[in-house]
Amino acid sequence: QSFWISPTGKRALFGARGELLTVPxxxxxxxxxxxxxGIYETSPEWSPNGKxxxxxxxxxxxxxxxxxxxxxxxxxxxxxxxxxNYRTGTKWSPDSKKIAFTDQIGNLFVLDIASKAxxxxxxxxxxxxxxxxxxxxxxxxxxxxxxxTKNNVIYAYRLSNGENLQxxxxxxxx
Length: 174
What we know:
- This protein is an all-beta fold.
- The chain is 0% helix and 49% strand.
- The chain contains no helices and 16 strands.
- The chain is globular and about 55 Å long.
């Protein structure tokens, strides 16, 4: 269902049938990170520093974000406490300190890993936000969302001050 290459290129991360597995590029052992029959894990992504894997799990009845050691050791840490809606699309910031993700009702979230604080960077009243990416300095989140005319409008959200800037011309309106 999903795949990701480790930052070193020595392992791959796969999401298959609700389980998360890391597989060596050449020789070594396949590691099942979740061992969670009856629980669905999705949207896995390796942190840029290679230490952690973030993913969503419905182990408590609702999809919440978890982070665990990429080598499978230790216990996963639950990072959010959502009680409704489906979330997806984990994207780590380049400094491995934040994760962006979305939900099916049009919100674009940012999680600060150290504090576990979740903020809403943007919201679309028309459709889900599914296209977003971090700047190299981890201070900007670039995203597009459909406007009233169904044309995508491109924005930049600055985390340091909460500013949202429309980058496309005024012809495209939110």
